Amino acid sequence: MTLENDWEFNVLQIYNYKLTGKLDGYFDFIRNNHDKIEGDICEIGVYRGFSIIATALLLKELGSSKKIWGFDSFSGFPAYHENDSLDKFKDLYDNGIISENHFQNCQLNVQLKEFMSGKSVSPSTISSSMDFSKTSLQLLQSKIDFFELDNIILVDGNYQKTMTEKMHINSSFMASLMDCDLYESHKIALPFVWDRMQKGGYMFLDEYYSLKFPGARIATSDFFSDKSDKPEMHIKKSMDFERWFVQKINK
Length: 251
What we know:
By secondary structure, this protein is an alpha/beta fold. The chain has a single domain, classed as Rossmann fold, CATH 3.40.50.150. It contains nine helices and seven strands. The protein has helices at residues 6-11, 24-33, 52-62, 88-94, 100-117, 137-146, 159-162, 183-194, 214-224, and strands at residues 40-44, 68-72, 152-156, 173-178, 197-205, 232-233, 244-247. The longest helix has 18 residues, at 100-117. It is globular.
């Protein structure tokens, strides 16, 4: 089945990679490099398959034999680290890691969320998906079966267990979508993916500019602090959020 209309994507809760959107940089990189850079693709934080199904469909359209590895616990957020506290945005601003505008937007987001809910917000309530406990591996698998996709490999489990040196993955990566939100998740996933990233490979940092999860910025900044490759911002096409990525130029 081929999806043509935006409403079809919306009904099935799949990102419409055929239209301009927040993941332009990620999908454009795959389109332009799927036949130039070796390795598969991985997504860290799958939830209900919003973007991983879209990636699989695009690869089929491109005639690519690449696989998409999807890592998720499919059980919601783990315990929070202190770096996930919303108060950490103030530390990021004070230390010059985020801009004044970014910090002001974080504060405004909290104010608006609390106004709408009538109560204080926390890392587990700041997102529209709450703590992601309403994830469904069964629903995701049904979508995979519906489209008869044989290019998705799901890795179910806590990252501390699934992302270890002993885990055998007979693939490198040419692109990655990092969407795992929390500090500890990034701290585990970043080295796991980066070590397997091909030279020229691309990592989309979904929560690097975040109004909800400061731990993602802290962990990412720490990880790349001693590396020559640094996060970069995509040229903004609108007044929407900043979109950040990092490309592995230096092996």
